[in-house]
Design goal:
InterPro entries: Ald_DH/histidinol_DH, Ald_DH_C, Ald_DH_CS_CYS, Ald_DH_N, Aldehyde_DH_dom, MeMal-semiAld_DH. The protein is an alpha/beta fold. It contains 16 helices and 23 strands.
Length: about 500
């Protein structure tokens, strides 16, 4: 049995806690490895290692830090096939989807190559009589990232790339469900020239999370996962004096206006709703056609498309989507689908009985399409995180707009229309963090920030873009005056510009 430990101080380290978790092949249900679950002492060892080397890394000029990421990006491209295979084998997503996962992380690494410019601050000459004033952005010290199973390449890089580029050391606690790729990324960072100990990977479960949140030497924490855990992480981190950015659940709507190109909208819904088996925080899980005629036409287009989805293991090059990540996830999704039927929604396409010959023990869920879903139903309120699309019919634009605005989550939303006025009004009024206009998955590019609103996000600063530079640094402001022109004697009033 393959054993997966930790990566600390530039070396593979076997677990010593005696606690392990199984890593499954989602397509077969077979155990393919065991991953060590860290104790508090193991987490502390990684932190102490990082604490030793971080000051020298922070003192390294930003251009040299940028060169590490130049080399790292080249290594990611050189090893793309290996990385995608490693990711797919543990997650279950298709090879092409896995490559997309890695590439979206790579793009943030490309962005932080600009750290010499991004980390520049402000200077005011003559801010007062013989006084200059300037600000400095300095690393927070040691940062930590707690990442989910659904993007084991992208989200770790979204966190550690800006943190490390800013001069921090980093402790990564990836999901124990697919831990191999994050360790491989750490190896490649060492190969790219990163000093040992700056990026450490510590595998674990809730025990490791709590150890991160309470460790006195960790200054900042980034988290992606479910909303209940995001609230817990944010509150616990703040209580322990850490800055935190925590991203939670989602229920992303797509509004389809009567004037929309329905072929384009249907294709967008299939890709955004069923890609990666729906295990994306930016998946479209609610379609909102405006008007009965629009709804009927949309259902007519979607039904055969959902029925013809090709589902298979990652080794099937023609597969549109693979299995979900665990047996527990499969059972949860099935339970929600059953409950949707009980609540009165119409299950137009029923994928519950899907079986794949030769992979009967895999965690597959067939594509499901619900119609006549209403906002009081659990399948509307809950993030299903599976290949399930719910259609909620709206009588008019205002009713359609109100649905995402009233929902607990505020991660992403999209509108499909040919009407520029409607699109502009929608983008302006909707209380959602990321908006797509004729774009189904509005994930911003690396140089803009990623983050939702409402119960989808906790904290003031988002991931990647310039927000990430602000999050992983502290601002120090210096007021400087030299002896020439300084009056003798003490001054007892607060300095002003009067």
């Amino acid at each position: 049995m393959r054993q997966i430990g930790h990566f600390i101080g530039g070396k593979h380290v076997a677990g010593t806690s005696g606690r392990k978790a199984n890593v499954y092949n989602p397509a077969t249900g077979e155990v393919q490895a065991e991953v060590a679950l860290a104790s508090d002492a193991e987490l502390d060892a990684a932190v102490q290692n990082a604490k030793t080397v971080q000051p020298a890394w922070a003192a390294t000029n930003p251009q040299r830090r940028a060169r590490v990421f130049m080399k790292f990006v080249a290594l990611l491209n050189e090893n793309m096939d290996e990385l995608a295979e490693m990711l797919s084998k543990e997650h279950g997503k298709t090879i092409e989807d896995a490559k997309g996962d890695v590439i979206r992380g790579l793009e943030v690494c490309e962005f932080v190559i600009g750290i010499p410019h991004l980390a520049k601050s402000e200077f005011t000459e003559g801010a007062g009589p013989n006084i200059d004033m300037y600000s400095i952005r300095q690393a927070v010290g040691i940062g930590a990232g707690i990442t989910p199973f659904n993007f084991p390449g992208m989200i770790p890089m979204w966190m550690f790339a800006p943190a490390i580029a800013c001069g921090n050391a980093f402790i990564l606690k990836p999901s124990e469900r697919d831990p191999s790729l994050p360790i491989r990324l750490a190896e490649l960072m060492i190969e790219a020239g990163l000093p040992a100990g700056i990026l450490n990977v510590v595998n674990g479960d809730k025990g490791a999370v709590d150890a991160i949140l309470t460790h006195p030497d960790i200054s900042a924490v980034s988290f992606v996962g479910s909303t209940p855990i995001a609230r817990y992480v944010y509150g616990t981190a703040a209580m322990n004096g850490k800055r935190a950015q925590c991203f939670g659940g989602a229920k992303n709507h797509m509004i389809i206006m009567p004037d929309a190109d329905l072929d384009q909208a249907a294709n967008a819904l299939i890709g955004a709703g069923y890609g990666s088996a729906g295990e994306r925080c930016m998946a479209i899980s609610v379609a909102v056609p405006v008007g009965e005629e629009t709804a009927n036409k949309l259902i007519a287009k979607l039904t055969p498309m959902v029925e013809s989805l090709r589902i298979g293991p990652y080794t099937d090059e023609k597969a549109d989507l693979g299995p979900v990540v665990t047996k527990e996830a499969q059972a949860r999704i099935m339970g929600l689908i059953n409950h949707g039927v009980e609540e009165g929604a119409k299950l137009v396409v029923d994928g519950r009985d899907f079986k794949l010959q030769g992979y009967e023990n895999g965690y597959f869920v067939g594509g499901c399409l619900f119609d006549h879903v209403t906002p009081d139903m659990d399948i509307y309120k809950t993030e299903i995180f599976g290949p399930v699309l719910s259609v909620v019919r709206a009588k008019n634009y205002e009713e359609a707009l109100s649905l995402p605005m009233k929902h607990e989550y505020g991660n992403g939303v999209a509108i499909y229309t040919r009407d520029g006025d409607a699109a502009r009004d929608f983008a302006s009024r909707v209380n959602i963090g990321m908006v797509g206009v004729n774009v189904p998955i509005p994930v911003p590019l690396a140089y803009h920030s990623f983050g939702g609103w409402k119960s989808s996000s906790f904290g003031d600063l988002n991931q990647h873009g310039t927000d990430s530079i602000k999050f992983w640094t502290r601002t120090k402001t210096v007021t400087s005056r030299w002896p020439s022109g300084i009056k003798d004697g003490a001054e007892f009033v607060i300095p002003t510009m009067k």
